[in-house]
Amino acid sequence: MEQLGFWEVQVSPKVVNVASVPQRSPFRYPGGKTWFVPRVRQWLKSLPAQPKLFIEPFAGGAIIGLTVAFEKLADSVVLVEKDEQVAAVWQTIINTEGGAEWLAERIINFKPTPDSIKTLLASETSSVRDLAFKTIIQNRVSHGGILAEGAGLLKNGENGKGILSRWYPATLKRRILDIATVRNEIKFIEGDAFQQVNKNLDSPDAVFFVDPPYTASKKKAGSRLYKHHQVDHEKLFELMSQVKGDVLMTYDDAEEVRDLAQKYYFETRLVPMTNTHNATMTELVIGRDLGWVR
């Protein structure tokens, strides 16, 4: 046990090899949860029965929800996202007939140069599809994939390739078309996380994976990463304590978060992860019964 604050939090020693996890999302998403995929598999398989509904109310890059859909770990998946740019991508791929194919071809046919990229990013968009394409480009050429205001474009990038160092059109096309093959198992909703949780509050067959912007602690790390970073974390903990189905949350490890977990009778575990600089860090996993965490 590792002493943290005024009570103890169990630490899981196992670090997940991200390279072993299938990459499903077209996004480079700040705070993405690819490293957490094996943990979600463990959690869902530990439940008495397969969930009828898997809800990710802060979807973002949606790697968890996508994995659940691809691996059929729940009967159906609901992704919820408030950010209009991110939502445009999911609306186009999941909710729009032919949208995934359109977006994939637009990406393949785009000729990226510093000038064409800057022209595109400065342009107005007249449709959800156009906003989706613009968002994918911005996500790929911005530092850390950050879409919030103030995020600069890549300069040196990978191997000195600069603004194009994260541009992999064939890979993006494949991921988008792959998602289209499971879109009948996914429902995307552009909207507020709290509203969607409330709608499924009394369903014992719905489970929730909650990965909100990390702004509960004094560090407020998520405030510079996301447009919609303001979250009432106390209200969120209170709401999740009331759901009839199971719930799993991830947060940065902070005293404020552990206080909320204790107040609303959740268990906590520290789980190691590797960040983008290959340094091992820990995040706090929160749930009702975390006996499955190893």
Which residues form runs of ≥5 with pLDDT under 50? 1-8
Residues in β-strands, percent: 15-25%
Structural class: alpha/beta
**Helical stretch tally:** 10
Residue-averaged pLDDT: 85
Order of neighbouring strands in the sheet with most strands: 1-2-8-9-7-6-3-4-5
Order of helices and strands: EEHEHEHHHHHEHEHEHEE
Q: What does the largest sheet look like?
A: 9 strands, mixed
| Termini Cα gap | 13 Å
Shape: globular
Any key phrases for this structure?
alpha/beta; globular; 17% strand; nine-stranded mixed β-sheet; 9 strands
Structure in words:
This protein has about 290 residues and is an alpha/beta fold. The protein has a domain at about 90-180. Helix content is about 35%, strand content about 15%. It has 10 helices and 9 strands. It has helices at about 35-45, 65-70, 85-95, 100-110, 115-120, 130-140, 170-180, 195-200, 235-240, 255-265, and strands spanning about 1-5, 5-10, 55, 75-80, 185-190, 205-210, 245-250, 265-275, 280-285. It has a 9-stranded mixed sheet, with helices on both faces. β8 and β9 form a beta hairpin. α4 (about 100-110) crosses α6 (about 130-140). The longest helix has 14 residues, at about 130-140. The protein is globular and about 55 Å long.
Compact summary:
By secondary structure, the protein is α/β, with parallel strands linked by helices. It is built from 10 helices and 9 strands. The chain has a domain of 92 residues.
SSE map:
Blueprint (H helix, E strand, L loop, with lengths): L1 E3 L2 E5 L25 H10 L6 E4 L6 H8 L5 E6 L2 H12 L3 H11 L4 H9 L5 H14 L27 H13 L4 E5 L2 H7 L6 E5 L22 H8 L6 E6 L2 H9 L3 E8 L5 E8 L7
Parallel strand pairs: 2-8, 3-4, 3-6, 4-5, 6-7
Antiparallel strand pairs: 1-2, 7-9, 8-9
Helix pairs in contact: 3-4, 3-6, 4-6, 4-7
